[in-house]
């Protein structure tokens, strides 16, 4: 016979089991999120934007592409040796150009370790802009505000960004913060410009406004945060490509149903740098992979989970990877770190991206 006391005991035991399962599931998610911080990934994306004949002029027909290595959001904390070693290994890509879109720091004492991680890449022509996390130390965040998309004020102790900037410039990287640059990188003629972090309204596009040099092979705009108002200006001025970070790919994502995209299977997003390089005979496949209409076709190139927020004005569908923004190509990096107060990544692996610039297919009969 069921007494009131035994019914209460059963209810309490069900509640206890449920609570235990909830705590267990929560611990599993947190454990996964911590483990994901070290699952560094190299993405590879092909972008056929060069005029036919560019590779021949530069003596690069054999390679078939120029490589732009895009890094962002290192958020370095002293002692992150695995991250430093992985970033150092990216030099194996032998990039023609390195682009760093900011948020290198998450600690006032991390500049030496950022420079150690980037050291082999600082021998390559490079471009950079900073994010507010280069200027100010991190502060605790309310996760609810993050998920609600509430913007935090830039605050905290000032970080030693000036010394980091000086070290980058001394090694030959070009600061694109409100500056325009024209130069040649391994035969690729580059026109580039950038703005300071628009997420906190530090941007002054007017100081770099105007069309890029029409003689350039590639024109690149840099903005730490992919704010639409800045992308619109780059597009209106005729830039071909913008590079950004900031979103961390959504950082805390939900599962999504993955739609296979032919051509993305060749380079596993989980590949180690050396694995990717071992399969790098790409150019002859580009016409088949891209066809003639390329708009939007790269959107599956940097898989993440379903982003809940982008932490900026861009929509969740363009939280990471290569996408169209009108006539512009925009690439958003997942980044390689997180704020030290939110050391979690879920379905948004830390990553860098190798962008292979190739020639547009010749029009038949031309
Ligand atoms: Fe960041």
TrEMBL record:
Family annotation (InterPro entries): Calcineurin-like_PHP, Metallo-depent_PP-like, Metallophosphoesterase_sf
Gene Ontology molecular functions: UDP-2,3-diacylglucosamine hydrolase activity
Residues covered by the Calcineurin-like phosphoesterase domain: 67-249
Annotated GO CC locations: membrane
UniProt superkingdom: Bacteria
BP term (GO), one: lipid A biosynthetic process
UniProt-recorded name of the protein: Calcineurin-like phosphoesterase domain-containing protein
Organism whose genome encodes this protein: Corynebacterium argentoratense DSM 44202
Lineage of the organism: Bacteria, Bacillati, Actinomycetota, Actinomycetes, Mycobacteriales
């Amino acid at each position: 016979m069921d007494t009131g006391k035994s019914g209460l005991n059963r209810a309490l035991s069900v509640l206890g089991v449920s609570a235990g399962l909830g705590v267990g599931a929560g611990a599993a998610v947190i454990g996964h999120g911590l483990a994901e911080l070290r699952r560094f990934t190299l993405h590879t994306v092909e972008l056929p934007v060069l005029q036919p004949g560019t590779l021949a002029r530069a003596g690069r027909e054999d390679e078939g592409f120029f490589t732009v290595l895009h890094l962002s959001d290192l958020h370095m904390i002293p002692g992150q040796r695995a991250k430093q070693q992985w970033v150092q290994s990216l030099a194996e890509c032998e990039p023609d150009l390195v682009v760093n879109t900011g948020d290198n720091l998450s600690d006032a004492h991390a500049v030496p370790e950022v420079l150690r991680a980037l050291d082999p890449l600082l021998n390559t022509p490079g471009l950079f802009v900073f994010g507010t996390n280069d200027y100010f130390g991190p502060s605790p965040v309310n996760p609810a505000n993050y998920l609600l998309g509430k913007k935090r004020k830039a605050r905290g102790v000032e970080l030693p960004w000036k010394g980091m900037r000086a070290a980058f410039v001394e090694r030959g990287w070009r600061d694109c913060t409100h500056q325009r640059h024209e130069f040649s990188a391994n035969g690729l003629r580059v026109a580039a410009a950038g703005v300071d972090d628009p997420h906190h309204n530090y941007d002054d596009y007017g100081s770099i406004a105007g069309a890029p040099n029409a003689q350039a092979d590639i024109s690149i705009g840099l903005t730490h945060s992919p704010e639409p108002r800045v992308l619109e200006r780059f597009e209106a001025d005729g830039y071909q490509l913008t590079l950004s970070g900031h979103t961390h790919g959504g950082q805390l994502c939900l599962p999504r149903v993955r739609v296979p995209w032919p051509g993305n299977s060749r380079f596993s997003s989980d590949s180690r740098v050396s694995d990717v390089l071992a399969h790098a005979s790409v150019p002859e496949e580009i016409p088949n992979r891209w066809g003639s209409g390329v708009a939007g076709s790269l959107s599956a190139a940097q898989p993440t989970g379903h982003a809940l927020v982008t932490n900026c004005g861009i929509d969740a569908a363009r939280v990471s990877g290569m996408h169209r923004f009108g006539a512009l190509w925009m690439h958003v990096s997942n980044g390689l770190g997180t704020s030290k107060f939110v050391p979690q990544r879920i379905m948004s692996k830390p990553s860098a991206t190798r962008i292979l610039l190739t020639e547009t297919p010749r029009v038949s009969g031309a």
